[in-house]
Amino acid sequence: MPKTTFFKLTEQKQDSLIAAAMQEFAKATFEEVKIASIIKSAGIPRSSFYDYFEDKEDVYLYLLSMIKEQKQLYMAPLLDKESSPFFDSLREFIKAGALFAAHYPLYEKIAKSFYANTQLMQTLLGEDRPNMISLYEELLLEGIASGELAPDLDAPYMAECIYQLTTGLTAGYDKETDQDISEMIAEKSEKLISLLEKGIAYS
């Protein structure tokens, strides 16, 4: 996490440094990103970087915490709703997750790269699981408990699968096209829901 000196910077300078780090981690893996590229993009001396962060891992963890916080805020309205039938709830979560990815493409690139690196994720998070995977698992367990899903369904594994499938819902979206992103996501998510209904619904 940032040192106290980082929070003494003006909001503009904080945003500038974080934006530079976001850009670098969005276009390369954690291992490939160099502190030199971050400070060059931010326009600050190397010594200043170490005044604000311990190392590359420190700023990376801060970015991940920002992404997690932003996504939690984005998903909060769904989390506060009363329980719905499993597939109705899943449909809402998938659409919300895909819209988040479309509205925050840099966040999504960083998170996707991080979650794809099992070793790095284990090193930085330990046994903690990505937030969305945990949410999908909770939904699945509720679906099993309600009798909507097969009782022998492997919820942790299926949650991982759903997460991986949903990360591709915004693939191919081009902001220059006339197609409305909400309509595109709705169309793709319905196809995914239909596939899941055939595969995991209890009958």
Description of the structure:
The chain has 203 residues and is mainly α. Helices cover 71% and strands 0% of the residues. It contains eleven helices and no strands. It has helices spanning 4-7, 11-27, 35-42, 46-52, 56-79, 86-103, 105-116, 118-125, 131-145, 155-166, 181-200. The chain is elongated. The protein starts with a helix and ends with a helix.
User: Helix count, per DSSP?
Assistant: 11
Q: How big is the Rg?
A: 19 Å
Average pLDDT level: 84
Series of secondary-structure elements, N-terminal to C-terminal = HHHHHHHHHHH
| 3D shape | elongated
**N-to-C span:** 49 Å
Helix content: over 70%
Q: Uncertain segments of ≥5 residues (pLDDT<50)?
A: none
Q: How would you classify the helix and strand content by structural class?
A: mainly alpha
Largest sheet: none
As a percent range, the share of strand residues is: under 5%
Strand tally is: 0
List keywords for this structure.
203 residues; single chain; mainly alpha
Q: Could you provide a short overview of the structure?
A:
By secondary structure, this protein is mainly α.
Tell me the layout of helices and strands.
Layout: H1 4-7, H2 11-27, H3 35-42, H4 46-52, H5 56-79, H6 86-103, H7 105-116, H8 118-125, H9 131-145, H10 155-166, H11 181-200
